[in-house]
TrEMBL record:
Residues 6-103 form the HTH hxlR-type domain. It holds the Pfam family HxlR. GO terms for molecular function: DNA binding. InterPro entries: HTH_HxlR (IPR002577), WH-like_DNA-bd_sf (IPR036388), WH_DNA-bd_sf (IPR036390). Keywords: DNA-binding, Transcription, Transcription regulation. It comes from the Bacteria. This is Transcriptional regulator. PROSITE patterns: HTH_HXLR. It comes from Amycolatopsis pithecellobii.
Length: 144
């Protein structure tokens, strides 16, 4: 049997642990310093430090020194981290609808002031994808 490489499983290996996406959310919202992230997430300092370290190791965040004495650091999103913004937004929308039973305060909005909604569109025609309109062609590079 040939082992499959699953992009979803690999991605979850980087961002799938508890507190990881919540910490990333804080950085994407502009909370870049460790104490700010701890205060806004409620995660323990040890766990949060481990999650942030893993995000840095995998190139999702960059740890940058902003003060020499004493040495202090902040976390900045890389291109890979910024690319996760719509994923976080989509998960938040899903959670609002199916887990918490109602919308949370708007977190991301367009420059026009309207709330953003995450959707998947066809790369060719630009039409929104609906459940019955799609099929899986390959999983992890292996044709189905």
């Amino acid at each position: 049997m040939v082992a499959r490489t699953c992009s979803l499983a690999n991605a979850l290996g980087v961002i799938g642990e508890r507190w990881t996406l919540v910490a990333l959310r804080e950085v994407l919202l502009g909370q870049r310093r460790f104490d700010q992230i701890v205060a806004n997430t409620g995660a323990s300092r040890d766990i949060l430090a481990a999650r942030l370290r893993k995000l840095v190791e995998h190139g999702v965040l960059e740890k940058v020194r902003y003060e020499e004495h004493p040495p202090r650091y902040e976390y900045l999103p890389t291109e890979a981290g910024k690319a996760l913004r719509p994923i976080l937004h989509g998960l938040m929308q899903w959670g609002d609808k199916y887990v918490t039973g109602g919308p949370a305060p708007t977190v991301w909005e367009h420059s026009c002031g309207a709330e953003l909604h995450t959707t998947t569109v066809c790369a060719h025609c630009g039409e929104p994808a609906r459940s019955g309109d799609t099929k899986l062609l390959r999983l992890g590079g292996i044709p189905q």
